[in-house]
Write a structure and sequence with these properties.
Elements: H1 11-18, H2 22-30, H3 37-50, H4 56-62, E1 68-73, H5 79-94, E2 98-103, H6 109-120, E3 124-130, H7 134-141, E4 149-152, E5 160-164, H8 166-179, E6 186-189, H9 199-209, E7 218-219, H10 224-231, H11 235-240, E8 245-248, H12 251-263, E9 273-278, E10 291-295, H13 297-314, E11 325-328, E12 330-333
Helix pairs in contact: 1-2, 1-3, 5-13, 6-7, 8-9, 10-12
Length: about 350
């Protein structure tokens, strides 16, 4: 079996080069325990010669210092994940803390445990899990009981959580279109668990409350190409007047819908109203600009750090005992992609 040696010189390498023990090197680096001038000079010379750089995380752990906020996430590039992470980083920096990120690659126990181990090897004072998916949810549940933890983006049983009410988001956008005079609303949905709540559940509930027909749910991946292909199935309905309003699970899916309708000669909003969710930066640059539901993911990430660093320690609880759920506000932003019928 091949073993992997730590890259760069180690503490033991410095000790061998200086002709001293490893604890002596540690004492020189720590600077708090007296060491003879000869040994100190030998250690410093070996450090300079080898180019040794102390591991700040290991030193902080050894001193009992907790200087980092740990983050567990399955993805760091999609808008919701990235914006939440930005809020976490800003709030941590305001408190003089840095951020350690562990990405959960898959739903396997091995990958989840690996992500947890990566964070616990760092001097983290607690962990924020971005739980837009089952992988991060399982990871936060596998943290040791004593570790402070907060869930951002979804509720986890027994864990302090801050999130958006996705049911309410879906209902808000759907009711807006119904109030504009549309007889029903078609929905291009993101991947979801049919048994759980979410934007699709809010969409359906709003239609059922209004006692109007509930069209078949159109499912997509997170890829706008998937929405482009799915929107092709709505074109004939738009031309016949059956489809007059489309709610997209997020703004990225709306990109695919815009492109397909443009290619088919379908006009927004003259022929069909389109509403998105999230209010990504590009939404205002679309033509027509996209009516959408704005959610402040950055504020959610910042609030998660506030809970982790200020609230949980003050009440003497770990995230496993303090289990309040906070909902962040969502606002419908009216632009040019809808019309009153």
């Amino acid at each position: 079996m091949r073993t992997h040696r730590q890259s760069g010189p180690t503490l033991a390498d410095v000790a061998r080069r200086a002709g001293v023990s490893t604890p002596t090197v540690s004492r020189v680096l720590g600077g708090k325990v007296p060491v003879s001038a000869a040994k100190r000079d030998a250690v410093n010379a070996a450090i300079a010669e080898l180019g040794y750089r102390p591991d700040p995380a290991a030193r902080a752990l050894a001193r009992g210092q907790r200087t980092m906020v740990g983050v567990i996430a399955h993805n760091t590039t999609r808008f919701g994940y990235a914006a939440t992470l930005e809020g976490i980083q800003r709030a941590a920096a305001e408190r003089g803390l840095s951020v350690a990120i562990a990405v959960v690659e898959s739903d396997s126990d091995a990958d989840i445990d690996r992500a947890v181990d990566v964070l616990l090897a760092q001097p983290v004072l607690g962990v924020v899990a971005i739980v837009f998916d089952s992988m991060s949810r399982r990871a936060v549940e596998r943290l040791p009981h004593h570790v402070l933890r907060v869930a951002a983006g979804g509720a986890v049983d027994g864990v302090a959580s801050v999130l958006f009410d996705d049911d309410a988001v879906g209902a808000l956008a759907t009711q807006f279109l119904l109030d504009a005079g549309h007889e029903t609303v078609y929905h291009l949905a993101m991947p979801h668990d049919p048994a759980s709540g979410g934007r699709h559940a809010g969409w359906r509930a709003a239609l059922e409350r209004a006692e109007v027909s509930v069209p078949p749910l159109v499912t997509c991946t997170y890829d706008p190409q998937s929405a482009y292909e799915a929107a092709g199935g709505l074109v004939s309905g738009v031309r016949s007047g059956e489809v007059t309003a489309v709610l997209c699970g997020n703004d990225v899916l709306a990109l695919g819908v815009y492109a397909r309708f443009a290619d088919e000669g379908v006009r927004i909003p003259e022929d069909v109203s389109v509403v998105g969710c999230d209010d990504e930066q590009f939404a205002v640059m679309l033509r027509p600009s996209l009516t959408t539901v704005r959610q402040d993911f950055r504020a959610m990430g910042a609030r998660a750090v506030e809970l982790l660093t200020d609230v949980l320690p003050s009440v003497g609880g770990t995230g496993a005992r303090v289990a309040d759920v906070e909902f962040c506000d969502a606002v419908l932003v009216q632009r040019g992609s809808h019309r009153v019928v």
